[in-house]
Amino acid sequence: MAEVSIALRNLWALSFGDGVEPREPTPSTTVYDEPHRHLRRYQSEVPATGKPVLLVPPLAVTIACYDLRPGQSLVRFLLDAGRPVYVIDYGEITYSDRHLGFEEWTEDIVPAAIRRVSEEHDGETVDVIGWSFGGTISVLTAASHPELPISSVTAVGTPFDQRRNPGSTVPRVIGQVTGGREVVVPTRLLGGIPKYLVRAGFRVQAFDREIKKPLFIARNLTDTEALARMQSVDRFMAEMPGYPGRFYRQVWRSLMVRNEMWTGTVRLAPGTTIELSNLRCPVLLLGSRRDVLAPAGSVAAGVEVLTGAASARFVEVPGSHLGMIAGPQARETSWVAITEFHAEASLVRV
User: Fold this and answer.
1) Structure confidence at residue 154 (pLDDT)
2) Global confidence as pTM
3) Which residue spans within the chain are E strands per DSSP?
4) Which of 181, 205, 267, 236 is nearest to 67 (CA)?
5) Which of 57, 128, 221, 305 is deepest in the core (most CB within 10 A)?
6) Mean pLDDT for the stretch of residues 109-113
């Protein structure tokens, strides 16, 4: 009877209620709040003793990627280890933001956040962590501004060589033939990739998961924990904002078609060229063979590119693109690798 009661309660919660588990984001306070640059510091009851950490999200997702739910929160893991943890919240991306490109992040938003976090801790250097395009932004920022007080950069699921990404082969060939018109025209018309298309795109990429979801629910009606994990991912995808038009065109032209993260020279715009060899701090790259967006090989290629780094290491971990940073296995895999890397990086003088 107890299992029947749990199953009925979970079914009701998923169908008509607010879900099987309430949303519990880690409390945070505002350091400063400006358009697309809301710097938050997470609150903790554990005294902060270690170097500060700045979490850099990718565009087109919310900061929940680092704080998905209790037990799947890199934020809480770092706080429990005594680290002061900050995150940049970009907020909504709309048609009016269509002019924003990589430069806004690599030359302004992220450098300003790093400097402020360092100032908050009497000039201490900062460990920067970025997932997906957040890792790309972090690497480009560190390479463009080697003078910043950065102790280390961790990039999770961040591709460096698109030739080692089977999913990008056909789009790259098409882009080389057309000059990217298939991306330029619609993004100029729409002002970017609107949030409803981003959300639909993620569901298409997780097509297998979406198809199997009804069966998964039926099999796990009495497993509240499993349903809560599923629900947290659904909420995450349902809240994704969009990409600014100019940013997405740069991704397509520079990173996809020209594969400039692999060549080592990223040309974002006339007068804005970033040499990845200028990055000086230690770097950790995490990748997974199960990641369909940035397979392990495309991530590991960064070790060959970041020739100026004090150290550059690749570690293969399990999980999907999101699972590497927020999956149930991340605590024993990705997060442990990050902790060990930070301990080693703190001994390096850049």
Assistant:
1) 98
2) 0.93
3) 28-34, 37-42, 53-56, 85-89, 126-131, 150-156, 192-193, 243-244, 265-269, 272-275, 283-287, 312-316
4) 236
5) 128
6) 98
